[in-house]
Amino acid sequence: MRNTLYLLDTNIASWAIIGNSAAVDRKLAAVSVTDVAISSVTEAELRYGVARHPEAARLRTLVEDFLMTVSILPWDSAVARQYGALRAGLERDGRAMGNLDMMIGAHALALGAVMVTNDGAFSRIAKLKVVDWTKG
Predict the structure, then answer these.
(1) Sign of torsion over alpha carbons 42, 45, 47, 53
(2) What are phi and psi of 89, to 5 degrees?
(3) Cystine design at 10: which of 5, 45, 80, 106 (Cβ 3.0–4.6 Å)?
(4) What is the number of alpha carbons within 13 Å of residue 94 lying toward its C-beta?
(5) Could you read off the pLDDT tens digit of each residue along the chain, which spans 136 residues?
(6) How far apart are the C-alpha atoms of 136 and 58, rounded to whole Å?
(7) What CATH number does the domain containing 60 carry?
(8) How far apart are CA 26 and CA 30, in angstroms?
(9) Among 98, 134, 131, which residue's Cα sits nearest to residue 7?
């Protein structure tokens, strides 16, 4: 039986990087590192955050260290198919959300992963399992 895969949204990854949430730290410590991953979209968002603050050497180091310890999953054709259907459905229902969030949500759906986030927008995605590790 396969373990649960937890896909961290960018906000949770940021909390893990900065280390300002004891609840997130406890959850990360309680699961195997092989059961935690991020989307390559989240990697892009983290790298964008670093690029916006080139003077922040400590932040760059923290992000690079985090990226070396977590699995980064590619956004592939199967995920693209999931994204197309997801976006069309959300727009049809008048429930659209940010494109990057839809890409990350589609990635979790395609993988059958649990989305770890404290962003309520992900609740718009039917069939997506969502947990919030910021809540103790």
Answers:
(1) negative
(2) -65, -45
(3) 45
(4) 0
(5) 568 999 999 999 999 999 889 999 999 999 999 999 999 999 999 999 999 998 899 999 999 999 999 999 999 999 999 999 999 999 999 999 999 999 999 999 999 999 999 999 999 999 999 999 998 6
(6) 27
(7) 3.40.50.1010
(8) 6
(9) 131
CB 3 within 8 A of CB 71: no
3-class SS shares of the chain: helix, strand, coil, % to 5: 60, 10, 30
DSSP designation for 121: G
Q: What type of residue is 118?
A: N
Domain-located, residue 58: yes
Question: Residue 32: which domain range?
Answer: 8-94+110-131
Return the pLDDT at 104: 98
The answer to whether residue 3 sits within a structural domain is: no
